[in-house]
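W.,

You were right to be curious about this one. When I first looked at the sequence I had no strong expectations either way, so I just let the prediction run and decided to look at it fresh. Below is the sequence, 331 residues in total, followed by the output.
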Amino acid sequence: MTAYRLFGAETSPYSLKVRSFLTYKGVEFDWIGRSQATEEEFQSHAKVPTVPLLVSPNRAPNQDSTDILSCVESDHSEPSSVPDDPACAVLALILEDYADEWLNKVMFLQRWGQKPDREAAADRTMEQLFDGKLPRAKKKTRDQVVKRMRDRLPLVGVEKKNEKTLKTSFERFTALLNTHLENNLFIFGGRPSVADFALAGQYAQMLADDTPGAWLRDNAPFVTAWCEFMDAPKAGAPFKPLDELKETLLPLFKDEIAVTYLPWAAANLQATQDKQDRTSVKIEKKAFEQVTQHYAATSFKSVQKAVRRLNDNEALTGFLDEADAKSFFDK
């Protein structure tokens, strides 16, 4: 038994995010698929019923993927996942939150919002839970899995009136990311950052589903190749400074992140502070409404603090201003 034990699921983007990160760091760990056979051990460490869960030698069990990556980075600094350029390091945190809190909505929509994909996903979930030994009442169990996951769709913001906004956002971001990755091995140069691990975790799930997977392979070959490489990434070269990345990195922020995720994240944070049960915001002149997400609000507040700590960094403030994103981080 190794010192690190990672409880996860192949169907969980956050589990893949952490597994890929530990692999990159060269940390020896046991991958423990959550199933009936491992449930008792999982429950002995877990505080919430979700994966991932990392059991570490010198830290308390952790189920927050963002915090897990931060802690592992502190304990194992090489190979680094923190861009040398301080502005890029903060932009990586913004992209990580975009992946975890906005792109995840798209992943849920793609997987559980359409019949062929949701039934196949339910089958994979059953295989995981029952260690490959499917129950006799396979169809009944599959229907139960589908119902449980479809009931969760509104909780992450996948409501009928939001679907077009999410699909448009996904296709636009993917096209911009594909262009950026044409000339960059990873998002910030020659080695992965937290942004790569978070985004690839979500894309890996969509590549596993027939409909979005086919679309990605047809329309985003560089994203597809990068995502497959991110399963066990290796540093290929140093990080690049912001000025070498700006030409194709800026459109990711200006044309997508500042248009969708940042308005929603700011509105969601405000709704939390106002103790409102629902968040409402205009995205590209269309109403986007959903249940207020308290964890997402806490996460975005942390990102705001990281940006504000660097408010004297002219490269960062200039980039965010040019991306029409600076106002979301002003005090």
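Here's what jumped out at me. Residues 86-109+157-328 form one domain. And, maybe more interesting for your project: The chain has 14 helices and five strands.

Coffee later to discuss?

I.
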